[in-house]
């Protein structure tokens, strides 16, 4: 009877160990699944970060191009104003040139505003990883908008 009871306790202990081992195996499977899911999400996040970084670089290059274009336009407007003299001297030709440059300026300002909107969107997305460069972009954007207002 004592031996039977000991065997019964031993069997119960072994059953608990088997159950515990099964639950640990299930937990291990669950942890492995969660780990793979996290790894997949991290890879997707890294891919998106690379895409946003590339878009940010493209936007920066576009902004530099727009700044150069604004500088050239400012110089052209200065030269036109210096060479214009009195309105009666050059007549209609000067007015037409000014209209063409004004249209070009309006078109470029529209393009610049669109570029700025793209930059703001990219900067908003990128702000999680690059807060300091976002501040630089905002400062550059403010300067460009001030120059645009001055040209208009």
TrEMBL record:
Q: Where is this region: Disordered?
A: 106-142
Q: Which InterPro entries match?
A: Nckap5l (IPR026163)
Gene Ontology CC: microtubule plus-end
What stretches pass through the bilayer? none
Name a single GO biological process: microtubule depolymerization
> Per its UniProt entry, which superkingdom is the organism in?
Eukaryota
Q: Which residues form a coiled coil?
A: 49-83
Entry keywords, A to Z: Coiled coil
Q: Where does the signal peptide begin and end?
A: none
Put simply, this protein is called Nck-associated protein 5
What taxonomic ancestry is recorded? Answer: Eukaryota, Metazoa, Chordata, Craniata, Vertebrata
């Amino acid at each position: 009877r004592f031996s039977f009871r000991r065997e019964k306790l031993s069997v119960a202990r072994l059953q608990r160990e088997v159950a515990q081992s099964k639950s640990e195996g299930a937990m291990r499977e669950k942890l492995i699944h969660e780990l793979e899911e996290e790894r997949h999400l991290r890879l997707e996040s890294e891919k998106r970060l690379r895409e946003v970084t590339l878009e940010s670089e493209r936007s920066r290059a576009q902004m530099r191009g727009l700044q150069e274009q604004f500088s050239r336009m400012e110089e052209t407007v200065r030269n036109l104003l210096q060479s214009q003299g009195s309105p009666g001297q050059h007549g209609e030709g000067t007015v037409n040139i000014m209209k063409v440059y004004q249209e070009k300026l309006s078109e470029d300002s529209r393009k610049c505003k669109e570029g700025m909107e793209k930059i703001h969107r990219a900067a908003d997305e990128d702000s999680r990883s690059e807060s300091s460069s976002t501040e630089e972009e905002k400062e550059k954007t403010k300067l460009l908008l001030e120059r645009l207002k001055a040209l208009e």
